[in-house]
Amino acid sequence: MSLQFSSANVRRESDVSTLGTEVYSRLRNDLIAGYLQPGERLRFRQLSATYGVGIAPLREALSRLISDHLVIFEGHRGYSVAPLSLDDLYDLCSLRTELSCKALRKSIQHGDTAWEAEIVASLHLLERTPFPGETADRETIDEWESRHDRFHRALIAHCGSPRLLHFCNVLSDHFQRYRRAVVVRVSKSAALMERVREQHREVAEAAIARDTELAVAALARHFEGSVEIVAQNYQTISKNISGGKSA
Fold first, then answer.
1. Do 45 and 108 lie in a common domain?
2. Could you tell me the pTM of the whole model?
3. How far apart are the first and last CA of the chain?
4. Which residues make beta-bridge pairs with 78?
5. pLDDT, position 54
């Protein structure tokens, strides 16, 4: 009997862990995408109904998301979505620029023809995907973000350092929280959107031509421009991205 009881416990713990991993992935995607607003309280009852899991997997997922700096825990308030702020934006993007440019430099050094082909293919797909407009639904925005991420990850994919790639991807995910807050708003500017496309092409062409200094400089300008676009729109959208409270 004791052996059977022990086996059942192991199975239950394994089930909880599996569910925790699954809900962690789903919650993380929704947090990055902004479907859960910065500052929003994360109540177990609502989360359980939304994601179809019990309390134990949710606790496991939220603990991991705290480590990811996407969720915060305060004893008197419980769990809530991590806030956004201009200070965090500039700190995040300074690190993102530094590490991504380093990874691009290494990828140009080590990249092969398959690396070049993926850059060309991902850029082609991105340019064939319209910027999300004011009436864009979740699927449309997600598709553009997915292809945008694919392009930027293709640029640095051959840096030869799994740890460097990991940190670049984490920083990119965190910046996506900010970009998502303004992408529909700024997409109304055709001139701005064309400038972004030109920046993507400039980085891609320089990387494939193995012009390291031009490619790195172009990527840095692109990131710095993205930061300024978000910062310029921050005050207007701050109520939305901070849950109605100052960040």
1. no
2. 0.83
3. 56
4. 74
5. 93
